Structures are given as C-alpha cells and as structure tokens.
Amino acid sequence: MASRRSLCRSAAWLPTRLATLGNTISLRMESRLKQTGTTACNPQQPRKLRGLLLSLLLGACPAVSTGEPVTTDQPARRAISLAPHVTELIYAAGAGHYLLATVVSSDHPEAARALPRVGDGVTVHPERLLAWRPDLIAAWQPTHVLTALGPALAQLGIPLIYSRPRSLDDIAVEILRYGRIFGTEATAQSNASAWRNRLSALRERHRNLPPLTVFIELGGEPLYTLGPDPLLRDVLATCSAVNLYDDSPTPALTVAMEDVLIRRPDVLLLPARKPTQARERVAVWRRHALPAALAEHFHAYDPDLLHRPGPRLLDAAEALCADLERIRLAQADNKH
Length: 336
Prior knowledge:
CATH architecture of the largest domain: 3-Layer(aba) Sandwich
Shape: elongated
CATH topology of the largest domain: Rossmann fold
Mean pLDDT: 83
CATH class of the largest domain: Alpha Beta
Structural class: alpha/beta
Strand content: 5-15%
Number of helices: 14
Largest sheet: 6 strands, mixed
Oligomer: single chain
Number of strands: 10
Distance between the termini: 47 Å
Order of helices and strands: HHHEHEHEHEHHEEHEEHEHHEHH
Low-confidence stretches: 1-67
C-alpha cells in the first residue's frame, strides 16, 4: 500500500483517482441492488460517496492553512464557494448574500439551493468559474483544476483561499475569519460565540465518561468504514468515544464483517437519512449476532452533518453524545 507521503505528494491526481474509486464502489452497490431487486434510496449517493472518499483521502495529507490573508483593499463582495461546508461557514458569518455561485452539493441553508452551480466539488468548470468575475474563491483543498488555475487567478488578482477545519474549535475560527473577509464581523462574532458556548457545554457534560468504541459504517455492500481523521476524532472525543479503526493506516477502508465481530464495538454508527435505513442495517448485524446490534446500541447519523466540517457538525455531535449517553445508562442498568 502506498505511504501517506506518496499519496499526498501531488494533489493534481487525487480527484481523478478518488472519482474512479467512488465510481467503482457505486457500481458495486448498484450491482448489489439489482441482485436483490431493490433500488437506491438516494439517486445522489454515488456523487456523495465520491466526494466523501476524496475528503477522507485528502484529509490524510498535511493541512492547508486556513488563515492565509486575503490581499484586497475592500471586503469581498463577489465570492464563489467550492465546498458545501465553506458555503455554510460563509452563511454563518452573515455573508451568504455575497455568494455568486457554489457547487452541486451545497444544499444548506435553504438559500444556498438557489445559487448557480459551477461544478460538483470534485470537477469544477473553469469557464463558469471565471465568467462570474469573482473577487474571492474559497475551496476546501487544491484540486487539479485549481492548481492549474492558480497562476491565472493570481494574475487577475482573484484570491484563492482554502478552508479545512481539523478540530471543532477550528470551525468557530473559520466563522470569524469569513466575517473579517466579508466585513460582517458583528454577525460572525455573535454566531461563533454561541457556537463555542454550545461546544463548551457539550464537552463539559461528557467529560471523563467511560469511553465507548464505535464502528462507523459508510456502506454495507461492500463494508466500508473510516480510519483516523483529526476532526472526527475530536467529535468522538467530545462524546468520550473512540473509532474502532482509528489505528488504521488509511483514512477510509474496506473491512471484513468477521473482523468487526471480533473487535466487538460498543456502538454502531449507521448512515441514514431515514430511520428505516438504520433499522435495516441493525437487522443485518443482528443476524450475525453482534452484541451492539442485539442490544440496540446504535446511532443513526446524517452523513451530510457528520462528514461535513461546517457549523452543523455540532448538531451531529450533540445528537451522537445524547445517544451514547443513553447507551451508557443502558449498560449500567444491565450490570445491575
């Protein structure tokens, strides 16, 4: 397997490779659905999975600074967001009305759905990007398109900045940063302070509790999970939990069901936009006699909340912590 250093050496080829990987997985999933005579519950699943895998692999690379200065004399007024979490951060900073366009997966808040699209987050159309004559482009990580566009953007005086929070605290920092960039400091300060207060209360409530191991399921056919990720690790630590595969050398991996059964996680984290989806996966694990499934120790999570490093990640953390608290109480009752 390639080393982390070799994976991160050139950002230019990563989107293509991850797109291929995501498409391969989605084809397997579609094949499995056809075999079982069912249909995909979400037609956007292949695109979302491809984007998630890209975020996971790039997440293993050295962090791009989120604090680079924007060298403009005036606050940004014609911005383009190239990542859904960036869109949410800009709205949280009170500057959503300065967004000209974004990417397909930017679906929150509701106002963002009306924005024109310049790509899907993995592939961006340069001609659409420049046709808007932006005074700021905000992205998550360098892609082959952005790397190639860099010199032209610099020549045109269009700042290109990146935003990749690596901890929950970084999200509040990013809200404040966008407030400075757009000149909306008052709104950004208010929202960032409220966000920090919620985070502080959550950490205090769940501090020093017995840790629970969680298995984070991404997909069931094949069985995909998450390895080490700094931001996700912080979310889990806030709830006094540990990723079952945090010791993996890769940020995303396929695992054998037998290995999960041997490791015996305390809790299952199951992706579900509808309650029935999680129940279906619990039933699968129950058939294999996984103790966590037999005890109904699972948490159904919205992938757009848990895997998107924006303001709503705190919503996901609060919901997760609440379910883990319920499971700890159930474990304590069983011991008595």
